[in-house]
Amino acid sequence: TKGHFRLSLPINAAMSPVVRLLVFTVLPDGETIGDSAKFQVSKCFQNKVSLHFSVAEDLLKSHVSLDVHAAPGSLCGLRVVDRSVLLLKPEKELSRDSVYSLLPGIDLSGNKDRDWEDLEFCRLQNPWSEPVSMDDAVGDFALLLQDMGLKILTDTEYQSPIECRPSRLRTYVTHGMKPEADWDRTERIIQMYFPETWIWDLVPVGPTGSVSLPLTVPDLITEWKASMFCTGQAGFGISETVSLNAFKPFFVDLVLPDSIARTEEFTLKAKVFNYLKKCIMVKVTLLEHQGFDMASESSIENQTCVCSMESVTISWHLNATGLGKQNLTVKAESIPSDALCGNEVVIVPEKGAIDIIRKPLLIK
């Protein structure tokens, strides 16, 4: 007779990343038959870990928050680094795949323990005998169990009889540790300086399973990458990587010599660079120049167009009159204007419309 039935198999994290289903029956004559199926399960963990920034991008030195979530009582290792760090050795990154690759015995398909068991059985009959290869056997339930890495204790007929024959070659196999020469002698160096690291800390989430961390965006234009793993009574968990873009719509920088002599004339240069996709009208002002006299032809305030991904240099001719370190301060401000920059209408960014820089210059 033939028939069929339906099995309901609930999936959970304990089955990840692969699960084998075995179905078998014992016939009235004692023979055991069966079949198996393999199911791939997405790689996941019991401890559900996640994190996200309050905004996707913000200005340098802005205040943002990072919300982290995990099972109550978990202790989490939090890392926020410059994206360039992840580009150096992506294969070394902690991820679901890298964690599962460290786990032994995830899939026992192709287990060869039975080969040794058959050999031991034949050696008990005759010390110089070996089993005949069973690779071509059809319908052998024992091969199915072997492929699944299972052991069975039963008095039923679940495998084909083992046939032993005299061995022509004595083989001695020794299992043990690698020779000392093969040991990994790689020197392990602990790195103590992380210039591209924003956060590297342990964060307890407490009984609620969540915490919000107030942060100040570092003074670096980059894409910050945040990730976290947690451990606790619920087990291990790891988050996806999230990003925060730290940006400036434009910035101003000063080009200064290391030092100048008193009464020496020099040209102070301020460079304005536009990161936006549109042109802007920028008013550049020399706010502070104590210890310096300005040439009559120079103007304290200048206006200029700066288009996308371009830079403009503003100059002032100064004469050193003071001594010691003297500060020079320049402000760049994006302002509305009816004038066109080339053929484009200028815009004013919603955030970061003003940038101020101050640098000291030594007068000897």
Describe the structure.
This protein has helices spanning 83-88, 96-101, 113-125, 141-148, and strands spanning 18-26, 32-40, 50-53, 57-59, 63-69, 75-82, 129-131, 164-166, 197-204, 210-216, 222-232, 235-238, 242-247, 250-255, 259-260, 265-274, 280-288, 292-294, 301-306, 311-320, 324-335, 340-341, 344-345, 354-363. With 364 residues, it is mainly beta. It folds into 3 domains: 21-42 and 107-116 and 130-163, no CATH class; 50-104 and 186-247, Single Sheet (S-adenosyl-L-methionine-dependent methyltransferases); 250-363, Immunoglobulins (Immunoglobulin-like, Sandwich), CATH 2.60.40. Strands 4, 6, 9, 11, 12 and 13 form a 6-stranded mixed β-sheet that branches. Mean pLDDT is 79; it is low at 170-194.
Supply the key terms:
single chain, 364 residues, mainly beta, S-adenosyl-L-methionine-dependent methyltransferases, Immunoglobulin-like, six-stranded mixed sheet, five-stranded mixed sheet, 4 helices, elongated
Largest sheet at a glance?
Answer: 6 strands, mixed
Number of helices: 4
Rounded to the nearest angstrom, the radius of gyration is 36 Å
Poorly predicted regions are: 170-194
At the first level of CATH, the class of the largest domain is Mainly Beta
Instruction: Report the helical percentage.
Output: under 10%
Could you tell me the CATH topology label of the largest domain: S-adenosyl-L-methionine-dependent methyltransferases
Structural class: mainly beta
What is the name of the CATH architecture of the largest domain?
Answer: Single Sheet
How many distinct folded domains? 3
Average predicted confidence as pLDDT: 79
